[in-house]
Structures are given as C-alpha cells and as structure tokens.
C-alpha cells in the first residue's frame, strides 16, 4: 500500500510539473472561455489515449491553442517503454520535415532584409546549380538526359517545384551512387553547403516549375541561408528564430544534458504491438542526433523540438509574424507564405502549397474538418501540425513511430479538435 501511495504521489507530481512547464510558455484558460467544450475535449483525450492503450503508439504529446491560450494539452503513454520513462510535455522529438517551415521562414527573413529575393535563380547563390540536366523516362524504363528548360528559383524550392526528389526519380541509380537517397543527414561528416554543391552534379527528375515533387528543396534552401547570411544554418536559426521566440529546446543535435528527454522511435510488430527500432545509423532508426558528427545541418528534416517550442513558432505565424513582443516576419510575408503558389500544378484534393506549408483551398474537395486558408505539414516520424486562422487554432501533435502503418490518429485528432468548438 505504501509503495502504491509513493507511486501515486510521484505520478501526480509529474502531472503538476507538466502543467507548470506548459503554462510557463502559454497561458491556460478554461476551454469554455475559448469557445471550446471541456466535455467534448474529454472525448478527444480518450481517443488519443486509446492508441497507447491498444499498443499502437508508445505515447504522444499534443497541444491545442485557441486565441493564443491553451485549450487542451496532454502527454500520454511512454517516452521510452523499455526504460520506464513516461511521456512528458517537454519530451524531445525528431520533427523531421516540420523543420521545413522554420527554414522557409529563415529564407523569408533574408528576403525581407534584401539579402536575397525568392525570385532569384538558385545558381546566384550556389553556382554549381547552373545548367542543370533533367532525366526523362522512356517507355522501356530507361532514361535520357536533356538540358533544363529554365533555372531553379528560390520560390521553386519553397514550393517544392524545384524538380528534385529524395533521389528516387528516373536517374535514381546516379543519386544512389553519389550517396543521395532519403532525407537523413545526421550521419554526414561534411557541412551541408558542401553536400548541396555536390548534389548539383546529378540530374533533376523534372523541369523546374512544372511539377510538385517532395525532395531536397528545403535542404538546398538551408545552404542558401548560409551563403546569403554568412552564418551556418544552426547559428542563423538560433539568432533569428529560436532565441527571439524562446524556443530553447529546438536543436539540430542534442546537448548532453537533454539526451534523457529524447523520445524513442518505435515500429509496428508483426501480429500487433510495437517495438523500439534498432540502434543503427539512418533515418529509420534512433539516429545520430546525440552522438553523430554534428556538422551537417539539414534544413529539410534535421531538427529536434518539443510540442511547446513548435507551438511558439506556429503561434508567431498565426499572429502575423510576432510572438510575445518579438517580430520575426511581417504580416504581409506570412500572408504570402500561406497562400497557394501552385496555380495549375496538381497537388492534393482541395489543397495547394505555399512557401513552406500546405494550404487548404477547397474544404469540400479535401473532405475533412477545417477551414479554407488552414496551413500545416508533418514529419516522417508521424508528427503533424496545423494552423487554422479562421478559428484562431494552433494544433501540434508529436509522436515517434515509423512506418505509421494502419494508424488513423490524424483523422481522429482533427475530428476531436473541431467537434469541441462550441462558439
């Protein structure tokens, strides 16, 4: 009985500390004061916890802000099942492609200052990217190279129309031989600028500006930031975004004192349940975020962060470029970033793409709850986020599983957030 009481007290203290920690970043308000229902948010809470109880996820951290205040937050399950470490609100996650929005914002900071212009050609900053070749697939599966019709612009890279994938296009053989396939950079022992300069020798998958292709676009933008600012990407982001916004837990590589807060990456097991991914280098493992070379800063997928830190960044965008008295970007720049730039280029039903974010253009065509003008994205370890300017909502959802086979938690999260709105 005494042991049970001690465990209960310890659990309550952890919950209290979690509440204090989140509240230190954002004020908490009763959901009804924010136009949301406490009872209906309990439905969402039960649904999210069910994924942990059913051994589909080890745990999650979620924050829902409305009007800049916490309407709902929760840390469910375990950060590390084997070690018995519970998930906490300040658990650190590999946010992978959620890095892209932050780096895209870095480009726009330099655009505002006149250090670059997003209409400029990439070769203006990285000369190796001039006179590119494009691999064109033949009917028999072979390919031929032809000169690119046009140069790659920085706006192409911001909208993922630069013409390059993650090395999986028609000339995948050349990309593999050159050591470029997949988004993982933490094991590289050369600066990202050197990596991107070497990448320019490879054929594109498509002519720039003609098709939306997910790939190295934002990693290239990270190298552009270094060239235009005269700083390494890590230092630039710390100075211009992380420190002003108080994002003290956002890093490319973990400080030693924070290593115990990094969530374990899991994978589904055959027959049900989950297990920790093997401890080996690479994007489908625990990674080298604490003991790697720590010299390559991946603008496309390299950051680690917490739900609270990422919510600060997103609230800044919802506020029109400002958070807690610190202005990062102008309101008009945020408007440009969160507008569809694809025109007639196909993407997803009811959705376009802006400068670093997907953007909802037609709610009925998309077919899920939300608002026109909503913007967001996610990460390869099954994290996601979105901002709804109409409803003044920020939602951050972090977990660590790859692949996320058979999971429908994204849809349940979205439904649970919107069904709780009562104003």
Q: Please, could you describe this protein's structure?
A:
It is a single chain. The chain has 423 residues and is an alpha+beta fold. It contains twelve helices and 16 strands. An eight-stranded antiparallel beta sheet has the order 3-2-1-16-15-14-13-12. Strands 4-9 form a two-stranded antiparallel ribbon. A hairpin with a 4-residue loop joins strand 2 and strand 3. The chain starts with a helix and ends with a helix.
Question: Any idea what the radius of gyration is?
Answer: 22 Å
**What summary fits the major beta sheet?**
8 strands, antiparallel
- Widest sheet, order of strands: 3-2-1-16-15-14-13-12
Any idea of the CATH topology of the largest domain? Beta-lactamase
Helix and strand element order: HHEEEEHEEHHHHHEEEHEEHEEHEEEH
Helical percentage? 25-40%
Note the beta-strand portion. Answer: 15-25%
| CATH level 4 superfamily of the largest domain | DD-peptidase/beta-lactamase superfamily
- From the 3D coordinates, which CATH architecture of the largest domain would you assign? 3-Layer(aba) Sandwich
Q: Count every beta strand, where a strand is a DSSP E run of 2 or more residues.
A: 16
Query: Spans with pLDDT under 50 lasting ≥5 residues?
Result: 1-23
| Structure class | alpha+beta
Morphology call? globular
Distance between the termini: 46 Å
The number of domains is 2
Any idea of the CATH class of the largest domain? Alpha Beta
How many individual helices? 12
């Amino acid at each position: 009985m005494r042991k049970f009481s001690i465990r209960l007290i310890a659990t309550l203290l952890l919950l209290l500390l979690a509440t204090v920690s989140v509240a230190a970043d954002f004020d908490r308000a009763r959901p009804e004061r924010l136009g949301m229902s406490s009872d209906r948010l309990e439905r969402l809470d039960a649904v999210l916890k069910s994924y942990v109880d059913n051994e589909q996820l080890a745990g999650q951290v979620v924050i829902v802000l409305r009007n800049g205040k916490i309407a709902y937050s929760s840390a469910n399950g375990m950060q590390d099942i084997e070690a018995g470490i519970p998930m906490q609100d300040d658990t650190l996650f590999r946010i992978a492609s959620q890095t892209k929005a932050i780096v895209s914002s870095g480009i726009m900071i330099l655009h505002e200052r006149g250090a670059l212009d997003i209409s400029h050609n990439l070769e203006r900053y990285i000369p190796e990217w001039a006179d590119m070749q494009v691999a064109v697939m033949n009917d028999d599966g072979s390919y031929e190279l032809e000169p690119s019709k046009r140069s790659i612009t920085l706006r192409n890279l911001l909208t993922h129309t630069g013409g390059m994938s993650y090395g999986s296009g028609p000339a995948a053989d050349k990309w593999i031989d050159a050591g470029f396939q997949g988004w993982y950079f933490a094991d590289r022992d050369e600066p990202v600028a050197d990596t991107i300069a070497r990448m320019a020798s490879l054929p594109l998958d498509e002519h720039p500006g003609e098709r939306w292709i997910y790939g190295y676009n934002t990693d290239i933008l990270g190298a552009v930031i270094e060239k235009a600012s005269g700083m390494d990407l890590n230092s630039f982001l710390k100075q211009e975004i992380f420190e002003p916004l108080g994002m003290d837990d956002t890093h490319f590589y973990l400080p030693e004192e924070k290593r115990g807060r990094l969530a374990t990456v899991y994978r589904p097991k055959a027959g049900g349940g989950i297990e920790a991914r093997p401890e080996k280098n690479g994007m489908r493992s625990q990674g080298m975020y604490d003991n790697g070379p720590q010299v390559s800063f991946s603008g496309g997928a390299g950051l680690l962060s917490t739900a609270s830190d990422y919510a600060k960044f997103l609230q800044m965008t919802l506020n029109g470029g400002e958070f807690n008295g610190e202005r990062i970007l102008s309101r008009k720049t945020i408007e440009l970033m969160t507008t569809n730039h694809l025109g007639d280029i196909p993407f997803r039903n009811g959705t376009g793409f802006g400068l670093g974010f997907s953007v909802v253009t037609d709610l009925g065509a998309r077919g899920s709850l939300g608002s026109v003008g909503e913007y967001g994205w996610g990460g390869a370890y099954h994290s996601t986020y979105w901002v709804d300017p109409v409803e003044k909502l920020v939602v951050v959802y972090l977990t660590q599983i790859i692949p996320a086979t058979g999971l429908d938690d994204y849809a349940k999260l979205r439904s649970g957030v919107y069904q709780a709105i009562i104003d």
